[in-house]
Each structure stands twice: as C-alpha cells, then as structure tokens.
Amino acid sequence: MNKYIDNPPKIAGRILECIIQKEILYGAMGDLEEQFYRIKLERGSFRARLIYWKQIGAALPYFIKNSIIWSIIMLRNYLKITFRNTTRHKGYSFINLAGLAIGMACTLLIMLWVKDELSYDKFHKNGDNIYRIMSYGTKYMIEGFDGTPAPLAPAIKDEVPGIENYARFSDTSKLVFKYEDKVFYETNGLIADPSIFDIFTFPFIKGDINTAFSEPFDFVMTETMSKKYFGQDDPIGKTIEIEGIPALVTGVIRDIPKNSHIQFDFLTSFEFINEISGFGTSWGSFNFITYLQLNPDTNIQEINQKITTVADINNCPQVKDGLGFRLQPLAELHLDSRASYRNYANVGDKKYVYVFSIIAFFVLFIACVNFMNLSTARFTHRAKEVGMRKTVGASRKQLVMQFFGESLLMTLMACVFALVLVFMLLPLFNRVAGKELELVLLNAQFALGLGIIIFLTALIAGSYPAIYLSSFMPVNALKGAFKSQGGKGQIFRRILVVTQFSLSIILLIGTMIVFNQLRFLSQTKLGFNKENIVYIPVKENIGKKYDTLKAELLSDPNILAASSQYYLFAEDGPFRSTDYNWEGREEDQQVDIILNLVDYDFIPMLDIELLEGRNFSKDYGTDLTQAYILNEQAVKEMGIQSPVGKQFSYGKREGTIVGVFKDAHFRSLHMEIEPHVFFMMEDVSQATEYGVVLIKINGEKTKEALAKIQSVWENLNPSSPFEYHFLDQKYDSLYRKEKQIGTILNSFTLFAVIISCLGLFGLASFLTEQRTNEVGIRKVLGASESGIAVLLSKQFIKWVLIANIFAWPAAYFIMNKWLQSFAYRINIGIWMFVLSAVLAVGIALITVSFQAFKAARANPVDSLRYE
Amino acid sequence: MKLLSRIEEIILLSIWRLENNAYGMTIREEIIKITGKDWLLGAIYGPLGRLQKNRYVNTFKGDPSPERGGRSKMYYRLTKDGIKALKEIEHVNSILWDGIKELKI
Q: How far is residue A174 from each of residues A537, A653, A725, measured CA to CA in Å?
C-alpha cells in the first residue's frame, strides 16, 4: 500500500497544530494518530482518514468563533491606541501622512502614465500576429525605418508562406476638404489597402467594411470628422470635394483610440490619391509602411530572410546596397523610439518608462523612510506600551502584526489624500506630459495597482518599526532604560537618512543636467538663422504663381525676404540618395547625401555661411540647371580637394559645385550632421507635399507682416484656408519630448526633496527634543546660543554630506547614459554636482536649524525644571 | 472553588478509574463505556485542557511508541485539587439524590 494512504492526513494535522491549545497539542496529536492506526486495522484506511478529518472538523467552528471574538476585541484596542498616538503627536502624524500621501500621489501619477504607455496598440484582436516591416542596414538607417517599397507586400504574400494578410499605408499630404460651406485643411489622412480593416480592429459605425472601397473615390472617416462636416446628418452617400475632386463617404468608423500608434481622421484608397499627387511605386521608392498579419507560430527569423530574398530577386536597388528587412511586433511599436512614422509624433520610449518607474519608486521609498525614521525615533513613547503588552502575554508575532496594522492604517489614510491630490494634479500633469489620462477608480487594473502600492508601502514603511519595536525586552522597556538612545536603531536611522538624501541628490543632479542640456539645445548655434521666419505650404497657386507671390510679399516693408524649398528641411524623413557622381570618385565609393531644392534667396535669407565659392546667382544662366552647393560634411565624406568648380551630378543632372557652406544643424541635435546638397528648383509647383515658402519678416511688426501674407494668400488661393507656422517653433517642437521629460522630472524632484525635508524636520525636532536636558546644562555652563545650534545641526549636515558620496557616482552614471542619446551634448561639469550638494545641504540646514535655534534659545530653567 | 461540570466529573472519574493508564484514547473508551454514547476523541480535549489549567489533573509522558508516530503517550493523573473537587461533587451528588423517590414517567 502506498505511504500516502497509510498515514494520517498531513494537512489535517497541520490545521490541528494551528488551532489547538499548545498545552494539549502533543498528547492530542499522539492520541489521534494511535486512533487512526487502530481504526485502519479494523475498518480500513479510508474510514480512518474520514474519522481523523471529522475530529478536526468538529473542532473548527469553536476555534473560529473564539478567534474572531478575540481579534475584534484586540482590533478595537489596537485602533484605539493608534488613534491616541496619532492625535497625541499631531506634528509627526502630519509629516508621516503628508509624506506618504505625496509619495503615493507621485507613484499613482506615474503608474497612470506608465499604464497608458504600455496600453498602446493592445486593442487589436489580431494584435499578437501583426508585424510591421522595418528596413535597416544602409548607412543612416542602421536603426531601421518604416518605409518599404509598394510592390514588396504583394510579392511576399505570394512567395513567403505564413503571411495571412498585408496592408500598406502612406500618409496623405495636407488636403483641402469642402462640403457645402465648410472648408477645412485635413492633415491627418491615411492612404491604405482596405485590408487594414481585416487586420486591425477599427470598427465601423456606419457603412459596410466589405463594400466601403468598391469604387476608387470612396472613402471612410471617423465619427469626429463626420460630425465636423455633417453634424448629426447621416454622412453615408454624401459627397465631399477633396482638392476639388468629388469623393463619396462610404463609411464612418469609431474614433481611433488615443493609445493607437496609427492615427487618422480619414482613410482613402491609393487610386484616389494618385489623382492628386503621384506616388513612387517602384521597388526603389520606400514610400509605404507595410503591416503583415502572420499565421500564429510562424518563425519570424525565417520570414525576415525570405522577405529580403524576395526583394533581392525583384532587383530592389537598396537591397543590392546591403539593406535588409525585419519584422517588428505590433506590441513593441509604440515604445520603440526609433519608429519614424511621419504622422505619429507621439512615439514613446522604453527608456523613459523605466526611468519614471524607478523615480516613482524612489519618491515612495523616501516617504516610507520618513515613516520608518519617525516611528522608530519615537520608540521611547511606545516602549512602555510594548513592555506592558509583552508582560500581559502578547507574543512577538502579535506585536509585529500590530505595528504592521498601524502602518497599513496610515497608508490607507494617506492613500485617500493621495487620490485627492492626484485628482487635482491630473489636469496639470496631462498638460505637461501631453496625455489625456483619467483617474478611474473602478477599473480593476487600477484597483489592483493601487492595492499593490498600498500593500507595498505599508510593508516597507512598517517592516522596520515592527521588527524593531517588538524586540524590546519588557524589563528594560518598563524601567525606561531606553532614555540613553543609541545602538543599532540609531545607526539604521542614519543609513535611512543617508539613503533618502542620496536619492534626492541624484534627482537634483539629474534635473540640473536635463535643464542644462535643454538650454544647450535651445541655445546652440544651428549655423543658420531661424528667428522671424514664417513658412506657408506650397499649395495650388502658391506654387504656380510663385513669382507673383514673391513680388507681392516683398512690396511690403515688413517682409524682408522670401524663398522656397522642395520640402521643409526641418521635417523628419529628409530625401536621401546615393545616386551621385563627382570628379575623382572612387569606383565603388558611395555617399548618402540628403538633397533639397531651393531658390536663389534661400542661403542669404537664412544667413547660412558660405565657406568657399558663391551662392546660386541669376548672373549665371546655368545655375538653374547645373549648379550644386554642398556642405562641409558632404565634401569631407566624398573626399574632394578644393571642391569649387569640380564636376558633380545627381542622377542625370550634370553640373558643377559652385559653393560649400558651413555645416548647419538642419535637423534635430539628436543626430550628427549629415552630408547635404542643395540645388535649384526650376519650378516651385513641383515641390513636394512638404514644400514651403519661407518668409522672413520684421520681428517687431509680426502682426502687420502676417496680415500681409494672409491677404496675398487669399488673393491667390481663395479656396484654401490660410495657414502659417514659425520656423523657430518647429525647431522647438523637435525637443518637445525632452521638455516634457524635463518638466516631469523637475516636479518629481521637487516632491522628493519636499518629502525628504519633511522627514528631516521631524527627525530633527524629535532628536533635539531628546537633548533638551543636555542643551539646558550646556547653557547653564556658558555655551552660546549659536554654538548650541551648530552642535545640534552638525550631525544632520554630516549625513547629507555622506549622502553626496553615494549620489554622485550614481547620478553621473545615469545621466551620462541619458546624454548619450544626443549627438550634441553638454559635458557633465563638476559644478553641477557641487551645486546640487550645496543645495541639498542648504535645504537640510534650513530645515534643521529652525529646530536647532528653537532649542538653543529655550530657557534652561524650563528644560531642567523636571530633573 | 467552582463546582465541576458533569463532563469534567466524568473525565476525572475515568482518569481515576484508569489509574496509571489514563491517556486520550483510554479516557475516551472509558467515557463511552460509562455513558454508553459515542464520543469524538476531540470532544474530550476541551474539558481536559480546562482541567489541566485549573490544576485538577497533571500530565506525565510515557515511552514513545511507533503507532503514535513516534510520540509518547500523554498520561493524565489527578492532583490533590482534583481529588478534592471529586469528593466535593460526590458530596453534592449524594445530597442531590438523597431521599429522591423512584423516577417514573
């Protein structure tokens, strides 16, 4: 017979051990086991087990009833004591509560933020099987970009097994929509294969998915957009004029959730956009973003290789140059900061998710440290209680539970305040972080998170006090032998304060470095003048009648210059090519050069410095078709000596280099300067959808200048609404994410420092109070007030100074990593560390000295009266 | 001194009768014999614990035995207080039943 059946049930034995009185446990267990074997012999093992269980079962109700009654009695007592302690020491209780509440509020805010970041693209039913094709491998695209050639997806669908479906996207340019009297620019459009609705979950409210794209001019819009044009009317079957072409509304979809990386207001077919502006659909133009829906359990590595092979077989020129394709799962898209989907400015960053989570933990931990410090510092107040409880029979376990219970109660109260705080701060936080977070208390996920935070806080905050306070020997505690404080408790408290300030100083240094880097970004000389420059899109007549436009603009004294560009150079995703040839080029030499088309006034208007040669000039008739101007970097990478006058060609456009301009940061300072080439745009109307007219205005007469631009615009383009942007704002927006991060970091640092100071204040006031007699005696013996204040403050300052030792290397390590993400960055100077240290010490000093001076000024008669 | 309850009285008497062989199992069997009713083993521990707390009984360990999972038997015996309490209840009982007419339904 097997052993398990042979013996009395173990679990039942365990239960019995828990519930039975200790005095009779031993005998009872023995008796039960003896009975078990006896019954087994007589009536079999099953019977024996049954009877064994029955015994336990019979004992349970009594035990449960008894323990419930007693726990209620004890709970009432605990609550009463907690309440008395809390109200007796209002100051400390306030510090504890405020610290915990602020700490928890920070954590909750960050939790909401992190939750939102992680929630992106999770709502698609097929989400686990959706992948985006990334291209990577050539010189400036090592990290990968999302452009793919149009024929790629249909080709691989046929040849690579495991691909269930594909959808190709491209974003539209700015389009004018007209319905009756309503005319708007719509910028947020998507051109896509209708299969997008099979792959992704974008539910239709009106219209039919299957027939929505049966005609080329059919299109689908979101609920919000439908309201904008049609109000409450049913839009299905109505016709909107897009850029003058009538298009039929065939469907309305629910608004795209905020946490989708694909955002669009309307969706049209490729045929339709072809009517408005052409598309490169060859294997060489990477104009489309391709999403695949794979069969589950497909080997991604294999598919990656096969896609590249298929592209190679079809003579995709970039693949010949070493470009490859790989799949990226949908779930990873949002937090991949390298994603470069043009319409998608809201890219997240895994790094910041980590950083913020850590900061949240820091702030909460600092608050917990306050709690630990203050509750153990006040141990003398509780020592007698602990001694008394132990004397009348409380076990250590009970005491530990009591103190944990107290910390849990405090945490719960703090949580209520924290929620109120979060509720008040959320709108501000949303504005700073560019989010639309909501505080939904009844959300299961949120409740779970909140529960974990509460439990964790109570555990961390309560652990040390519980273990420490419950360890007192009743004899010592009741004798009051703890007056001469010291020993382990004090050392631990020092460690806690040092940790607390280390964390605060790390945050301080971090804030300072972020602030300086941001200032550096906004002050770095970009190599051209971006101030007072307005740009307007090249639209219809703006391009066609560019000369008229320019002449009219320049007739106004407030408009200083005007120029046009093929696409705005600040735009993400510049035009690149390697199709260049030049005098002295090595056989296999290839340089990836960003190209842009400009006009005569572009270089002087932006104050771009020419190092060699000259600007494009009307004096040379051939400039329009043959001249090139390069930047230093391009010259360097091509390896041309004295470039001016040398032959240079882009594709079939043969010509010469007429000038070299000084390297300028046309793109974000995250990136190194890349080779650039400028040549002339023969006809402005050939500019891309990102083409612009740049207008330099008189900075003091902005209003007048803008009014003039508007009137000119309206003359030429009565059908499209006027729009303009400032170039410097465009550049500022390149660092929007960094600024958000900076502001968030700032505020959390502030909170952390406040909480640390609260704790230090409490601790200082307590320790000073403890030394009242000492101070009295010192004063009687002739110590000066300032001498005593220094004496009392000294130890705290020492701790804060020690904290610096730990904080500096940590801060250096972390911030150095952050700075690596910028190609152009500040050096971390020692002064930032020193300044942070001075700040921390200063704040600590102010906090502590308040208490120290109060104690020092006290009259010794009062303090010594009771001895 | 508080008067014994009936179950306490029964347990004390069984221990007394069993002399040196009074432990959980035998006490239960004795009670079943006396009362003619089935008793759960668990049911005697409550009163036994109480009696022990009031110092009416004390315990001594026997030799460890394999059928008890290597545990010793926990033998019970009466203390002086226990005997006194029994005597008292005997006295009360005799007065209680003295001169009672035969019970008939």
A: 9, 30, 14
Dump pLDDT digits (tens) for A321-337: 778 888 888 888 777 76
CB crowding A631-661: b at 16 or more within 10 Å, else e: bbbbbebbebeebbebebbbeeeebbbbbbb
Closest CA of chain A from B24, distance in Å: 6
Q: How far apart are the first and last CA of chain A?
A: 78
Q: Do B67 and A62 touch (CB under 8 A)?
A: no
- The answer to whether A27 contacts chain B (CB < 8 Å) is yes
Residue A695: its H or E element: strand A692-697
B71 vs A24: CB contact, 8 Å cut-off?
Answer: no
Burial class of residue A97 (count of CB atoms within 10 Å of its CB; 0-12, 13-18, 19+): buried
Q: Is B76 part of any domain?
A: yes
- How many domains does one find in chain B? 1
Of A111, A102, A113, residue with least CA distance to A417: A102
A254 contacts A200 by C-beta, under 8 angstroms: no
A866, exposed or middle or buried, with CB in 10 Å at 0-12, 13-18, 19+?
exposed
Residue B34, domain member (yes or no)? yes
CB-neighbour burial class of residue A114 (10 A; exposed 0-12, middle 13-18, buried 19+): middle
Instruction: Give the pLDDT confidence of A165-185 residue by residue, as tens digits.
Output: 888 888 776 778 888 888 888
The model's pLDDT over A285-303, given as tens digits with 9 standing for 90+, comes to: 777 888 889 888 888 888 8
CB atoms within 10 A of CB A698: 14
Contacts of A519 (CB under 8 A, 6+ apart): none
Tell me the CATH number at B55. Answer: 1.10.10.10
B74 vs A27, A54, A58: nearest CB: A27
DSSP secondary-structure letter at B66? Answer: G
Q: Which of A30, A33, A55 sits opposite B42 (nearest CB)?
A: A55
Ranges of H-type helices in A129-239: 152-159, 196-199, 223-230
Which tokens in the block code for residue A166?
């594909």
- Which chain B residue has its CA at the smallest distance from A41's CA? B67
**Closest Cβ–Cβ partner in A34, A56, A59 for B68:** A34
The pair of structure tokens assigned to A168 is: 């190709």
Tell me the per-residue pLDDT of B45-95, one tens digit each, with 9 for 90 and over: 878 888 888 889 988 888 777 777 777 888 888 999 999 999 999 999 899
A664 and A672 in contact (C-beta within 8 Å)? Answer: no
ipTM over 0.85: no
> A21 touching B, CB under 8 A?
yes
Structure confidence by residue, pLDDT tens digits, A190-220: 888 888 888 888 888 888 877 778 777 888 8
DSSP string, A546-597: HHHHHHHHHTSTTEEEEEEESS-TTSSS--EE--EEETT--TT----EEEEE
Mean pLDDT of A344-357: 74
Q: What does the mean pLDDT of chain A come to?
A: 83
Asked, for residue B104, whether it belongs to a domain, the answer is no
The answer to whether residue B102 is domain-embedded is no
**Burial of A734 (C-beta count, 10 Å sphere; 0-12/13-18/19+):** middle
Is some CB atom of chain B closer than 8 A to the CB atom of A28?
A: yes
Task: Give the residue numbers spanning the domain of B38.
Answer: 6-97
Start-to-end Cα distance in chain B:
36
Rounded to a whole number, what is the distance in Å from the CA of B2 to chain A's nearest CA?
A: 22
